[in-house]
């Protein structure tokens, strides 16, 4: 492999993330071939690569590039089995309103060319109060009606799969201490998906402060959606878990947790009880998943957060 290829080797964060999953020959081959894939797409799309963005994500590699006309852009290559087509469809539907624009796409190759934002400057660089204000303003722009023939999974179907996995993990001996929280999370999820009481919106699906980057066309734009269709409270729930480590270390964490949920519900006009339910479910599901994969510290933190609700 050439030195030029070595410059586009996968970031350590991506290697660790894929390495923590069950053995997957396709993922290993993809990681090994990434430099060649970057070079191939760059040549076909007339791009001049600069560097791989660090630390990057856990399921894709992001390369800062220049187009033939000299403008900056971002080349994103997704791991095998990724949902590039769905990401492209969501970004195309938003058409730059609150989200990054797609300049070119080749879903079968897992490739997206996106407008250049400031990859190192997310809402997490702001003070908490200002970050939440900007995050809620941006999220509100994303909540639009989906197209009639949209390809997106519903919140009910997506969380049904999460709930099945959560239920199985909670039956393991190591999960005995968290079963009460898990049981409540599963009951809440069943009640919440029975009837949302609102028209479904297109949702980001993985909305958090780190997924909102500074831009030139607009101050802040969302990236990296895992789009779903459903009620808005589900999309807002993950935002309530932002900076969870700092929050849980604060005196009076229980009151702060409940106040945060209430403020987010009020800011975006969603039902407080429904938001609380989705926050609890998402925290419990993510917490148990972390414990199952060896992420004990974060898993316990998320489950403690869920328990305070």
From TrEMBL:
Organism superkingdom: Bacteria
InterPro entries registered for this protein in UniProt: Kinase-like_dom_sf, NH2Glyco/OHUrea_AB-resist_kin
Alphabetical UniProt keywords: Kinase, Transferase
GO biological process: secondary metabolic process
Gene3D superfamilies: 3.90.1200.10
GO MF entries: kinase activity; phosphotransferase activity, alcohol group as acceptor
Protein name: Kinase
Organism: Streptomyces klenkii
Lineage of source species: Bacteria, Bacillati, Actinomycetota, Actinomycetes, Kitasatosporales
């Amino acid at each position: 492999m050439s030195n030029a290829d070595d410059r586009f080797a996968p970031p350590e964060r991506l290697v660790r993330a894929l390495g923590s999953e069950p053995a997957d020959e396709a993922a290993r081959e993809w990681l090994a071939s990434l430099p060649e894939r970057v070079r191939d797409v760059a040549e076909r799309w007339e791009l001049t690569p600069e560097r791989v963005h660090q630390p990057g994500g856990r399921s894709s590699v992001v390369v800062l590039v220049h187009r033939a006309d000299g403008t900056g852009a971002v080349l994103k290559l997704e791991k095998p089995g990724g949902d590039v087509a769905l990401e492209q469809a969501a970004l195309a539907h938003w058409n730059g309103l609150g989200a990054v624009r797609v300049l070119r796409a080749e879903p079968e190759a897992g490739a997206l060319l996106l407008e250049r934002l400031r990859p190192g400057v997310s809402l997490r660089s702001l003070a908490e109060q200002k970050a939440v204000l900007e995050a809620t303003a941006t999220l509100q722009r994303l909540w639009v009606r989906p197209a009639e023939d949209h390809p997106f999974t519903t919140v009910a179907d997506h969380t049904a799969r999460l709930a099945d996995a959560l239920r199985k993990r909670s039956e393991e001996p190591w999960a005995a201490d968290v079963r009460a929280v898990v049981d409540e999370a599963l009951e809440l999820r069943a009640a919440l998906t029975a009837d949302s009481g609102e028209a479904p919106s297109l949702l980001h699906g993985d909305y958090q402060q780190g997924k909102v980057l500074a831009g030139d066309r607009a101050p802040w734009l969302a990236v990296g959606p895992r789009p779903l269709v459903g009620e808005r409270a589900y999309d807002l729930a993950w935002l309530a878990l932002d900076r969870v480590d700092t929050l849980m270390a604060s005196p009076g964490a229980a009151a702060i947790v409940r106040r945060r949920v209430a403020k987010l519900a009020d800011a975006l006009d969603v039902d407080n009880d429904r938001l609380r339910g989705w926050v609890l479910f998402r925290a419990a599901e993510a917490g148990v998943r972390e414990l199952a994969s060896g992420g004990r510290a974060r898993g316990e933190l998320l489950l403690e957060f869920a328990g305070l609700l």
